[in-house]
Amino acid sequence: TGAGLEEVAPVVPLERGPAGRPWSEDRVGLLRADVRDLDAMLAACEGADALVHLAASTGIADSLADPLGHCSANVLGTVTALEACRRRGVARCVIASSGAAVGDVPPPMHEGLVPNPVSPYGASKLATEAYCLAYRGAFGLAATALRFSNVYGPHSGHKTSVVAGFIGRILDGRGLTIYGDGRQTRDFVFVGDLVEAVWAALAAGRTARGVYQIASGVETPINDLFGMLADLAEDRLGRRPAVEYRPARPGEVARNFADISLARKDLGFAPATALRQGLALTFDWFLARRPPGPST
């Protein structure tokens, strides 16, 4: 956050893109700014061919505590990103949306359902989709919103999502908390599969539609997720975590998984990482980066 555009790290080499494709450039710079700062975004988009907008305030519980902050970060941040693309002539843009934009609807989620968001976070993401479609229609920008399901994978140590949060507590030797009875379901997509979807949407350009569901297409109860992580803890650490059940939180949907047939058809999206395999890769990434001690 903060005004202006500040270089905070040296460039580092990138050898290949997703699936081994070469990047058009072999260097990347890190810039720090508030996505709502139009001057900063205009500078960042100068000479760019495409923009992938992932910046957001996330989390249903956090949005219940600060609805206005989520609206500002997610809606105004997205409009600023789209406007920077328009003014700088950036031809393609991919926006991160969420299944929370669809909300409490009979599963599976798909692009033809009338959205019914039940949290401020979901409402903010639905608004970003609307602006994405508006910039497509009004200005011809090849903007596509991808509704990410529950994303997990390596390099998520900063996240508070369910997989990262559970693994962090396991490695700290703490018990896990499940809100509700654990039979509520989610659709977990591995980060590597998600990157392939972003790449495919950028490559499709104007031939892509405005909104796609990006998920694994598999419905997984939270109790099953806990069981898989407990098995990994027993195998890697020689112990199983305790679990405590608490009342369900407001704004949470009971069942959540997606129909990804449209993304398969239009983008060739084909998630290849099964949940048990992806959880093992993620658990091992966290474990390798934990300092040695009694808890690990």
Strand content: 15-25%
- Low-confidence spans: 1-17
Helix fraction, binned, reads 25-40%
Q: How is the largest sheet built, in terms of strand order?
A: 3-4-5-10
| DSSP strand tally | 12
Q: What is the helix/strand order?
A: EEHEHHEHEEHEEEHEEHEHH
Mean pLDDT: 89
Oligomer: single chain
Tell me the Rg in angstroms: 20 Å
Task: Tag the structure with descriptive keywords.
alpha/beta, two-stranded antiparallel sheet, disordered N terminus
Written overview of the protein:
This protein has helices at residues 38-45, 60-65, 67-88, 120-139, 162-171, 191-204, 222-237, 261-267, 275-288; strands spanning 6-13, 27-32, 50-53, 92-98, 142-148, 150-152, 176-179, 185-186, 188-190, 211-214, 220-221, 243-246. With 296 residues, it is of the alpha/beta class. The strands form five sheets. It has a four-stranded parallel beta sheet, sandwiched between helices. Strands 1-2 form a two-stranded antiparallel ribbon. The protein is globular and about 55 Å long.
Give the SSE map.
Elements lengths: L5 E8 L13 E6 L5 H8 L4 E4 L6 H6 L1 H22 L3 E7 L21 H20 L2 E7 L1 E3 L9 H10 L4 E4 L5 E2 L1 E3 H14 L6 E4 L5 E2 H16 L5 E4 L14 H7 L7 H14 L8
Parallel strand pairs: 3-4, 4-5, 5-10, 6-9, 7-12
Antiparallel strand pairs: 1-2, 8-11
Helix pairs in contact: 1-3, 3-4, 5-7, 5-9
